[in-house]
Fold Beta-lactamase family protein.
Amino acid sequence: MAQWMEGKIDVSAEKAGYDEKRIAVLADYYGNLIDAGKIRAAGFLMARNGGVFCHRAAGAHEYSDPSPAVKPDAIKRMASITKVFTAAAAMKLVEDGKLWLEQPVKTLIKEFDTPLHGNITLWHLLTHTSGLPADGGYFLEPYPIDHYEFINKKDWIKRLLAGPMQAKPGSQWNYSTLGYSILGEVVARAAGMSVGDYIEQEIFKPLGMTRSFFTPPAELIGEITTTEKWEKDDLSGAPGKRYYSLGGFGAFSTLSDLMRFAQCFLNGGTLDGNRILGRKTVETMTRNQLDGVPSFHWGKNCVNFRQGLGWAFYCDGPTVSPECFNHEGWGWCSLFVDPAEKFIFAAFTNTHEDWNPAVMVNPRTIAFSGIL
């Protein structure tokens, strides 16, 4: 049986307006996945009105046995949740007048100054409508191309732009981590430092996200929970190793730190007296930006797909408020922020399997069912 370890909480479930019995249901659900060997570990945090009322973790910290138990404050590779940090960084630079939303990428990256790519803007990158290659497997192709192998090569931008576009800019939503790689490069050139350094300086530190970073400090590597052997081997090069696409999937964080980031958005851009973004910027980032833009979305045809700036609206069904924004990351982890209920649900699991609704959808439905 999965043994749950309790993390720090601020208020009781009752004071938060949450049915405590649903916490037990959620823990049992994740515990059954762990006991069945479908995931190695799980952790989840829930907060309402700025107070954490549930914070737990269970399972194995390492990819193989024997392994110590995973802790609630374990650090995990956030994968694609990195994109919302990159989007926030880009919008900070927009606020400072160093970028503008309709700015053509070619004004900062000369490789984009072509008839095919010249009309791609910052807004297109933020909304996954640039027409650049979608993630491998997005179109359900049986043998997807691994575009990420060239990310660290000197000519990676030219390699990315080789071949035809997948769509005309602005005409179609195609989930593109490579597009966010470019967005990270745009941030770096506008800020005069790497996107990772800029996010750590302008977002992580001001928000008190003390266990979030891009290059893992040597003293914290042992606290990073891993899913597979390659992850453990990958960490052996730290510190100083550049992790893949810093704009698209390079961040490490914890459930508590994700909560602080999410709460900043619920607060209109501030936390503990520190303003990270303007209120109007937060409203823009968490508002649907698309109108009638089609999306294939991994086998599901969506005529009116909804997408904010960085933040997504992947929530299906009536279990969340329509304005609930979120993002997911491979491995798998998720962050849901419901402004109508002032509710945050952050979760991670350790698994190398493909996306599975039993791991990603059902727990979220259970979590939201407890709101009173």
In short: The chain has one domain: 74-348. Residues 191 and 198 are 7 Å apart (CA to CA). The longest strand covers residues 51-59.
